[in-house]
Each structure stands twice: as structure tokens, then as C-alpha cells.
Write a structure and sequence with these properties.
Number of domains: 1
Largest sheet: 8 strands, mixed
Radius of gyration: 16 Å
CATH superfamily: Gcn5-related N-acetyltransferase (GNAT)
Helix content: 25-40%
Shape: globular
Structural class: alpha+beta
CATH class: Alpha Beta
Order of helices and strands: EHEEEEHEHEHEEEH
Distance between the termini: 28 Å
CATH topology: Aminopeptidase
Length: 209
């Protein structure tokens, strides 16, 4: 099941929040050797702020098996701060309706089928969240393999924002954008069979682009 965590609900979901940070530590720090901050087995950075929303896939509401962080870029943008060379047109960084998705992670110890299922829930959840909150684009930077195997195979139409280059242990990394509209959500729902995974109102947006 998917749960949305924000500063308004973090007290209610404190155990899930810490479980998410521990999953991030295992997957990014331990497994992929990211140079990131950790404390007591939890990974965090400056983009974990009061405006951040977290879409988490939990096991019985206790253990986090997948997570994604969404932050409005006007309150912090990793892509603009650290990888601006991956974006050809920097006007995207000036739009307050654009949010950034970062720390997209799924527990690597799970079976392939479970990882696909969790990833698809989170992809659908990102788009539902965007529609419910007036977001026009969700941008991010990921390995090209993830862009294809996770997002495009889930039915997402991606806009590539710039060049491909090596970052750390990943030989091919690229910035991309998901345009948030009803047509995008319909394609993902048709491809995945998932509907209303976050329980948010998304019908108000009529754009079928």
C-alpha cells in the first residue's frame, strides 16, 4: 500500500519515516556508495525539508519497501544545484509549478516481480500527487536504464532535458521530465492496471495532453 507522508502527518507515520531513511541508507550509501550524510543508519540531505512529500510503499504500514521524495523546486532543487549541465533549457528551474522527484528507491532484496509492482505504484502515485497539487512537471535525474525500465514501461511519456553522462558508478545518467496531466495518468493506469493508489482527488484536471 502507498502512504503519503508530509510535515503534517510525520508524527503519525514516524516509524515509517525512519524506515524510509534506513532503506535509503542501505540502497544509496551501503549498496551504491553515494557520498551522502547518514545518522544512526539513516540517510538524509538538505532536500529533506518541510515542503517535501514522501510517497512510501509499506508492508503492513510498518516496513518501507519503496519510496520517492517530491519537493517543489522553489524550495530546493538537486538538479539545479548539482547537475545543471544535464539540462539544456534552464527556464524549467524558474517555474514554481515544477516539482522534483528524488531518492526514488525500491528494496533491492525483493523479487523482480515485487520490485516492478512497487515501482509502478510509486510512478502512478507521483502523477496522482502532481494532479492533485497543481504540479505541471516533475523533473529528476536518474540512470537511463531506470528511466526506460521503470517509467516508460509503466506508460509514462518522458521528456529528456539534456545530455547523458556518467555520474559516480552509473555510466549513463540523464535528466528527464514527466508532464503532469490527465492523459499521462490515463496512460499509466491503462499500462499498469492501477487506479487511485494515493486516494487523492485527481479528476479536477481536465488536460489530456
Amino acid at each position: 500500500m502507498l502512504i503519503l507522508i508530509s510535515f503534517k502527518t510525520i508524527r503519525k507515520h514516524a516509524d515509517l519515516y525512519s524506515s524510509m531513511l534506513r532503506l535509503r541508507n542501505r540502497e544509496f550509501m551501503v549498496r551504491q556508495h553515494y557520498e551522502v550524510k547518514t545518522f544512526d543508519g539513516m540517510e538524509f540531505d538538505s532536500y529533506d525539508n518541510l515542503t517535501s512529500n514522501y510517497i512510501v510503499f509499506s508492508e503492513g504500514g510498518k516496513r518501507v519497501l519503496g519510496a520517492s521524495r517530491l519537493t517543489p523546486i522553489s524550495y530546493g532543487c538537486m538538479l539545479a544545484d548539482h547537475f545543471p549541465d544535464l539540462v539544456d533549457d534552464h527556464k524549467v528551474f524558474a517555474d514554481d509549478r515544477v516539482w522534483e522527484s528524488t531518492r526514488f528507491v525500491v528494496d533491492s532484496s525483493l523479487s523482480s516481480a515485487d520490485r516492478v509492482n512497487i515501482s509502478r505504484h510509486m510512478v502512478c502515485g507521483n502523477i496522482e500527487f502532481g494532479l492533485a497539487n497543481g504540479v505541471t512537471q516533475i523533473i529528476g535525474v536518474m540512470p537511463t536504464l531506470i528511466l526506460r525500465s521503470v517509467f516508460e514501461r509503466a506508460g509514462v511519456h518522458l521528456d529528456r532535458l539534456g545530455v547523458i553522462r556518467q555520474i559516480g558508478e552509473h555510466s549513463k545518467v540523464q535528466a528527464a521530465s514527466i508532464r503532469i496531466n490527465r492523459g499521462q495518468l490515463d496512460r499509466v493506469r491503462d499500462q499498469t492496471g492501477l487506479h487511485d493508489v494515493l486516494g487523492l482527488e485527481t479528476e479536477a484536471t481536465a488536460d489530456h495532453g
